[in-house]
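Figure 3 (text version): structure tokens given as input.
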């Protein structure tokens, strides 16, 4: 299965909430080549990686505002990708850049400014490992704060 990097503009953070509510990722350039079972990494500009998910069906053309609830609607979005979020973290994983390239992944800033781009499996799985680590750390902290035995 392929991995795709899905970027959310820092100027439009509400788009992330709309994607999760609708179970759709909006695409503005033709139709992406993804298919059910492909993996998605979610990045919010200037904040970092916030989660990962799965493509659940083939991309399709949006037919109504319900399919494309983002600014520009069906006039701007040429396709939507049915998806589900598997893991989301509250504190994003931000990886530093040197000369517009993210050192740990090799992703350039252009990839992080497109709506959806194919990325190498090895870099994507490294990011996913960090997301899971942060997710489970937060789960452990939440359990610890609720447990009277850990006071």
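Below: residues designed for each position.
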């Amino acid at each position: 299965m392929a991995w795709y990097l899905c970027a959310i503009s820092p100027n439009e953070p509400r788009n992330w909430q709309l994607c999760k509510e609708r179970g759709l990722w909006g695409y503005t350039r033709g139709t992406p080549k993804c298919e059910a079972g492909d993996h998605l990494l979610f990045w919010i500009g200037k904040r970092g990686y916030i989660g990962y998910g799965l493509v659940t069906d083939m991309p399709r053309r949006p037919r109504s505002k319900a399919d494309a609830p983002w600014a520009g609607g069906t006039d701007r979005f040429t396709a939507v990708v049915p998806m589900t979020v598997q893991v989301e973290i509250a504190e994003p994983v931000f990886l530093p850049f040197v000369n517009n390239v993210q050192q740990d992944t090799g992703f350039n800033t252009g990839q992080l400014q497109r709506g959806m781009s194919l990325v190498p499996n090895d870099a994507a799985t490294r990011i996913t490992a960090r997301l899971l680590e942060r997710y489970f750390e937060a789960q452990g902290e939440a359990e610890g704060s609720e447990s009277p035995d850990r006071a």
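The two ends are 45 Å apart (CA to CA).
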